[in-house]
Specification:
Elements (H helix, E strand, L loop, with lengths): L1 H34 L31 E4 L3 H12 L4 E5 L12 E2 L1 H9 L12 E3 L1 E6 L2 E6 L11 E3 L2 H13 L4 E14 L2 E9 L4 E5 L2 E4 L17 E12 L9 E4 L6 E5 L4 E9 L10 H10 L8 H10 L3 E7 L10 E3 L14 H16 L8 H7 L1 H6 L1 H18 L5 H15 L3 H10 L6 H19 L6 H25 L1 H5 L16
Helix pairs in contact: 1-13, 2-4, 2-7, 3-7, 10-14, 11-13, 11-14, 13-14
InterPro entries: FAD/NAD-bd_sf, Squalene_epoxidase, Squalene_monox
Subcellular location: Membrane
Family: Belongs to the squalene monooxygenase family.
Length: 530
């Protein structure tokens, strides 16, 4: 009888979760249809503020540059190529043009790959030994479940890609530099050049140490997570919830080929994914801003005694070998909601503008999606001369980017908290409920993985699945028979779920996230020539 009751209770929990998800998903679909009723941009190219300069001619500074791009990482290189392909004359200033060597920015979600195709940059993942990624595998307490991306409706080439970050960036830089109207220069930008509150260009030091100024009607700052220019253009509230400890496992076969692996370990998740045909990246999340010392051997001891016993046995030997090899690196995980100060003549993009926990690998997808939005906004403009009019027009960028950016940002922050172990029993119940919910398959896994992959960037769908997990967890607690203790844990579970997701949504902006069509800038179109 107990088994029957337990089985019946599980069905009830699933039914409740399904009903709630269906309601929210219907609301999400209705909302997305309403958001499509947007005033279109002018059909013919128009000038902002009536500059009246012909196509391809610059209006600012020396007249030879339309846009200055600060930084040539993923965002800067992709942006330079995109604007250059549209006929803009672009001057890119990058601190170091040698191949970067990073332990993040190595996994591009399918949604990001679709944006790469849209920008004409899909060949940048070729000839770098990039690996196709078809989904994720979750591991918890000796059990595992495979979650595949819902790619059935897409071309067979569409999938995630994982690679060495530096190789990918070098390919992007080469692609940008191949355009005759894109100038790629090594130099360190020290400050923005401002006149009467309008950014006119930048001051920078060349590779030889010479101090120069560059001028353009529009300066776009993409100088990464360590940006020294963002304070002039936004209100940065940077949080560092944890650090990643990075290792490379060689000649290692993951349990599920072509899948990222997430181990729900104690105290926080461990990631594994291929970055070449012979290498697997391991990222161990360490909560807080302090990590064990690498120099005195504390880190190796921590990895062997705390982390190694929790990883899948198939990769244990390769993990120990990577520790013994000694190539251990660390990097702080930053999150920062977008809080721009609209400034005439300047714009922030990439990690300089907006960051989220890298657990979900969504950073490059957000950056590439932002570039598509900006390209579409700038395309109708003949020139960029009237800085104040252009600034007012580009306020729509901050609203139009929200569906993709806020969904990925919120999911990253919420999943990190749910996937991390906690002394709170209610939080641990939520963690187990999440694993079991995703293990149900069907809509229960396809919905969340579509959000994670950037294929379905709908905030309402995210909220629906998040609370469906919470209610599923409460349903499990009520079976086979509810007790006062279990009911109290259920109440705390719902409270904990609210405490996780609502602050993230508040930071993203409720109105911009869920009701972008009510924001006046959403409908802003370029002003026609007078």
């Amino acid at each position: 009888m107990a088994e029957v009751a337990a089985g019946t209770g599980q069905l009830i929990g699933v039914a409740v979760a399904t009903l709630l998800a269906a309601i929210f998903l219907a609301a999400a679909l209705l909302g997305s249809r309403r958001r499509r009723r947007r005033a279109p941009l002018a059909g013919k190219p128009a000038a902002v503020g009536g500059c009246g300069v012909a196509d391809g001619e610059g209006c600012g500074g020396d007249g030879r540059t339309d846009v200055i791009v600060v930084g040539a990482g993923v965002a800067g290189s992709a942006l330079a190529y995109t604007l250059g392909k549209d006929g803009r004359r672009v001057h890119v200033i990058e601190r170091d043009l040698t191949e970067p060597d990073r332990i993040v920015g190595e996994l591009l979600q399918p949604g990001g790959y679709l944006k790469l195709i849209e920008l004409g940059l899909e060949d940048c993942v070729q000839e770098i030994d990039a690996q196709r990624v078809l989904g994720y595998a979750l591991f918890k307490d000796g059990k595992d479940t495979k979650l595949s991306y819902p790619l059935e409706k897409f071309h067979s080439d569409v999938a995630g890609r994982s690679f060495h970050n530096g190789r990918f960036i070098q390919r992007m830089r080469q692609k940008a530099a191949s355009l005759p109207n894109v100038q790629l220069e090594q130099g360190t930008v020290t400050s923005l050049v401002e006149e009467d509150g309008t950014v006119k260009g930048v001051k920078y030091k060349t590779k030889s140490g010479e101090e120069l100024k560059a001028y353009a009607p529009l300066t776009i700052v993409c100088d990464g997570c360590f940006s020294n220019l963002r304070r002039a253009l936004c209100s940065p509230k940077v949080d560092v919830p944890s650090c990643f400890v990075g290792l490379v496992l060689e000649n290692c076969q993951l349990p599920h080929a072509n899948h990222g692996h997430v181990v729900l370990a104690n105290p926080s998740p461990i990631l594994f994914y291929p970055i070449s045909s012979t290498e697997v990246r391991c990222l161990v999340d360490v909560p807080g801003q302090k990590v064990p010392s690498i120099a005195n051997g504390e880190m190796a001891k921590y990895l062997k005694t705390v982390v190694a016993p929790q990883i899948p046995p198939e990769i244990y030997d390769s993990f120990i070998a990577a520790i013994d090899k000694g190539s251990i690196r660390t990097m702080p995980n930053r999150s920062m909601p977008a809080a721009p100060h609209p400034t005439p003549g300047a714009l922030l993009m990439g990690d300089a503008f907006n960051m989220r926990h890298p657990l979900t690998g969504g950073g490059m997808t957000v950056a590439l999606s932002d570039i598509v939005v900006l390209r579409n906004l700038l395309k109708p403009l003949r020139n960029l001369h009237d800085a104040s009019a252009l600034c007012k027009y580009l306020e729509s960028f901050y609203t139009l980017r929200k569906p993709v950016a806020s969904t990925i940002n919120t999911l990253a922050g919420a999943l990190y908290k749910v996937f991390s172990a906690s002394p709170d029993q209610a939080r641990n119940e939520m963690r187990q409920a999440c694993f079991d919910y995703l293990s149900l398959g069907g809509v229960f896994s396809n919905g969340p993985i579509a959000l994670l992959s950037g294929l379905n960037p709908r905030p309402l769908s995210l909220v629906a699945h998040f609370f469906a997990v919470a209610i599923y967890g409460v349903g499990r607690l009520m079976l086979p028979l509810p007790s006062p203790k279990r009911m109290w844990i259920g109440v705390r579970l719902i409270s904990s779920a609210c405490g996780i997701i609502f602050p993230i949504i508040k930071a993203e902006g409720v109105r911009h996230m869920f009701f972008p069509a009510t924001v006046p800038a959403y409908y802003r179109a370029p002003r026609p020539m007078e």
